[in-house]
Structure formats: structure tokens, C-alpha cells
Specification:
Layout: H1 3-31, E1 36-38, H2 40-44, E2 55-61, E3 67-68, E4 74-80, E5 87-92, E6 104-111, E7 117-124, H3 133-142, E8 144-145, E9 150-151
Parallel strand pairs: 1-2, 5-7
Antiparallel strand pairs: 2-4, 2-6, 3-4, 4-5, 6-7, 8-9
Length: about 160
Amino acid sequence: MKPVKKKRLTLILTIFVVAATGIGLLLYAMQENLNHYYSLEALAKNEMPAEQDGIRVGGMVENGSLQREGDSLSVTFRITDFQNPPLTMHYTGILPDLFREGQGIIATGKLGADGEFRATTILAKHDENYMPPEVAEDMKRSGYDHKQGQKQGQY
């Protein structure tokens, strides 16, 4: 092999190794920060992975489901899309000021093997007209009108 070709081949291999290493490090860093959104419909179809961190799920907080555990910051509640079975959620921490029953939320956390969700972050909508896009799409499929607070066709 001629020295010029050998030098080019070495340069190309070096660039390839550096690029592959950079992409590998980027994917490794992103793996820990990826949040995958799943609807309650996906949960009903067993499409939501159990025991995986970084899962986002959304829905409306079911009326009458909020329970506080004594004086602690631990709460248990259910979210629903009014079409599929509700999901029981456990959260320990300070809830957002706008969190209340009958309101759309998005939670990040992990689905346990027992079918209950352990949330690490709760996001509530910031005004009465806003609904997180993922939750709005789920509610639209279930026929729920979040602006009127009722399922379409109900009065």
C-alpha cells in the first residue's frame, strides 16, 4: 500500500472511530433523559413497560380519589381518560399549586409490577383553558371535553 493511501485510510478510520464514539456517548446520555409518553389506552393494552424509569402518563385526576397519608407529603390518587380503567398513582412530594381533582395532569415515574404508578414528578396545567397536548389527545379520543369539564353528550 502506498504511503499516501495508508495515510488517507488512517485518517478515515480515525474520523470514523471518533464519530462512532461521539454518537455512542450521545445515545448513552440521552438514554437516561428520555421520557416516553403512554396513554391509559396503552396501559389497558399492556403496551406500557413495567419497572422502567422515565415513563410519562397523563389523564384527569378522578374525583374523590385523592387520599393523603397522614401528615406526610405522600398522596395516592387515580387518573382516568373516562374510557379505560383508571391508573392508581403514588407520589411523595409537594404537589403543584394547581393540582386538584378533575384536572388534567402529566406524571413522570415508573409503573410497578403491581400495576400502580410511582410518580417522581407531577405537572398540572397552568390555567383552566390549557391541557397538556398528550392528555388533550387522549381526552379527545375518549370524547371528554376538558373546557366544559364533561364528556361530550353528557349534560
